[in-house]
């Protein structure tokens, strides 16, 4: 079943993680919040598929109610 | 000052009912002469069902209130015989612009499709809207149609019985009583009828206030809907500018929850806001101003025995999306033909329960849309504001973010998917005219399709034979043969060879097939009038 890919999928994980932190470097909490929100919207649009997005929202919720 | 909304249009006059020994019984009484009560009365009267309208006032809406009227209600108003003066007077508009901070982030076009009699939207002051409806009601009276409008008649008590309702009415000359076989309560969001019957009105109040100012000014802004998020002249809040006829401009300022109402409404304080927005040197006259808190609520059911609720009395939405009056007119459009068939003994009372079911469905759609708009315009939490601003930030540069911007999802017609009155659907035919949908207009050789529809059951026959009339249980179905013009093909036929549509008196599709089958049509008519064997 095509669904949310939760297997490792980023070719160079350490590079991506460093780039994510670099994106936020030197920014206030408020600016970082804005960056994160924009990033989520950009990625969500790229995924597009409603079912996968739903699974991603659920995965992000973890065990919170 | 001679404004139409300051002129008594139906002043109190003594009715013979007030001197009757026993309360006079009327087939239908409507409470409220707002747009929805007038719509109900015109619809019934022009179909010869006697109706009495009671209103405690004698004038049209004070100030404008509603300004945007959508295509579907305009089509309903055409059926009621008063769409033309509204469209003639109204301002047609197609473009909306959204601003964030100091920048324009995006413009949208309503992309009005060609080949329709009516535009997507017009702007018209609610007082004109009601005035033209009153003209139509007077015209019907002049033709001898059975309709009465009693101003200065305030309903003060209602008694419910199995087969009728009793009403106590206060007038300047004292109280009197009447009876009604059926009562339609169109007495607005604070509906005294609802309260007198002890019925709930559940929903949400949004903790925010909006200052609405209608100003008369010579200005060269285009006829476009301009919406600002967080503009320099109203920091942290929103604002709206929209044109109405006679150089009247609607301006809304979101002003937050903790306000001093009386202070905000002082003309000098409104003046400060207007000059900050439009420039220090503007010249204008303030026509009307008011402060609103928006709410989204509805009754659980719109029928309670012999009492039927319609318009704001039954459901209330925030104005973003222009869904108040526009949806109320769809209520009475749905109700009038059903009530007529029940009164004439051609359909069971159960048909009126489907009024409630279909319009509750419509109200939920409107409440969902206007709740979402309000949540976007008035973010409830820090994180919802962060996302809202992120959407607006991205919308300027990236097309993908524009559909997420929500400054009001404008009223679209309700499609009664899943209604108990729906007969079969033919999935090969175009989706937009599926069973439950309102008919989609199209040009004909000699006029418009929409003008040929309504007030009776009809068959649309495209590329096939059908008898002129099919009669079932005292209800006649008239056939309209349509040629397969490009618009008819696109809107009704698709890739099929032929198509047959059964339309209800409110122009909604009751069932459709790809070939004529008389037995199936008879069965669908029974289903559409709540006489199915379910
Ligand atoms: C700022 C604002 C902007 C809006 N913009 C839009 C828009 O752009 N498009 C849109 O479609 N809608 C809009 N609306 C909503 C629209 O104004 C309402 O949905 C509409 O007026 C509802 O009509 P109604 O006939 O149900 O009720 P009302 O217009 O409230 O009429 C109720 C009538 O009942 C009468 N009445 C009450 N009690 C009694 C009694 N006891 N006895 C006798 N009579 C009684 C009252 O006098 C009144 O005449 C807007 C509303 C506001 C406030």
- What summary fits the major beta sheet of chain A? none
- Structural class determined from secondary elements of chain B: alpha+beta
Number of helical regions of chain B: 12
CATH topology of the largest domain in chain B: FAD/NAD(P)-binding domain
The average pLDDT value of chain A, as a whole number, equals 95
Q: What is the terminal-to-terminal distance of chain B?
A: 60 Å
Principal-axes shape call of chain B: globular
CATH architectural type of the largest domain in chain B:
3-Layer(bba) Sandwich
Descriptive account of the structure:
Chain A is mainly alpha-helical. Chain A has a domain at 28-65. In chain A, 66% of the residues lie in helices and 0% in strands. The mean pLDDT of chain A is 95. Chain B has 534 residues and is of the alpha+beta class. Chain B has two domains: 1-12 and 24-294, FAD/NAD(P)-binding domain (3-Layer(bba) Sandwich); 431-528, Glutaredoxin. In chain B, strands 1, 2, 8, 9, 10, 11, 19 and 20 form an eight-stranded mixed beta sheet that branches. Chain B has a seven-stranded mixed beta sheet with strand order 6-5-14-15-16-13-17. The model of chain B has no long low-confidence stretch (mean pLDDT 95). At the A-B interface, helix 2 of A face helix 10 of B. Flavin-adenine dinucleotide is lined by residues 31-37, 54-57, 65-68, 126, 154-155, 186-188, 192, 212, 292, 311-313, 319, 322, 324-326, 328 of chain B.
Structure summarized in a few sentences:
Chain A is an all-alpha fold and 65 residues long. Helix content of chain A is 66%, strand content 0%. Chain B folds into 2 domains: 1-12 and 24-294, FAD/NAD(P)-binding domain (3-Layer(bba) Sandwich); 431-528, Glutaredoxin.
